[in-house]
Amino acid sequence: MNYLAVIVAAVAYFIIGAIWYSPVLFGSAWMKGIGKTKEQLAGGSAITNYLTGLITAFLVCYGLARLMLWTGRTSIAEGIVVALLAGICFVMATMLMNDTFEKRPCGLTAINVLYHWVGLIVAAVIIGAWR
């Protein structure tokens, strides 16, 4: 496994999240969906939040790289297929299950699921290209 590719993919995944949940894209709709204001989200340690985000992005990218290796899917196109399957089976299915029981808005589920699909696809492209 190319750990440098996994690290670069994780940083890209993290940056996509920073842009995705910013006011530039879906930040306002996301805050409305979770029923919070910017002031309510301001508490806590930003360093802890960002470090947690980076570590979890690394875990996702490591898992994706491992799945790609285990299934023998190492090209960009094959990586995208693995990423889409992981996005549907692990991300969408679990978020949809939780959000349905929690009575969360469908728009919130879409924002969160699509972020992870985009992140997984970008990560698969990076990992697949960096053989």
Protein architecture, described:
The protein is mainly α. It has one domain. The protein is 80% helix and 0% strand. It contains 6 helices and no strands. The chain has helices at residues 3-20, 27-34, 38-41, 46-70, 76-101, 106-129. The longest helix is centred in the last third of the chain and has 26 residues, at 76-101. The protein is globular, with a radius of gyration of 15 Å.
Q: Radius of gyration, rounded?
A: 15 Å
- Strand runs, count: 0
Class based on secondary structure composition and strand pairing: mainly alpha
Count the DSSP helices: 6
**Unreliable runs, pLDDT <50, ≥5 residues?**
none
Oligomer designation: single chain
Q: Largest sheet, if any?
A: none
Mean pLDDT over the residues: 94
Beta-strand percent range: under 5%
- The shape, in one word, is globular
Total number of domains: 1
Distance between the termini: 9 Å
Helical amount: over 70%
**SSE string:** HHHHHH
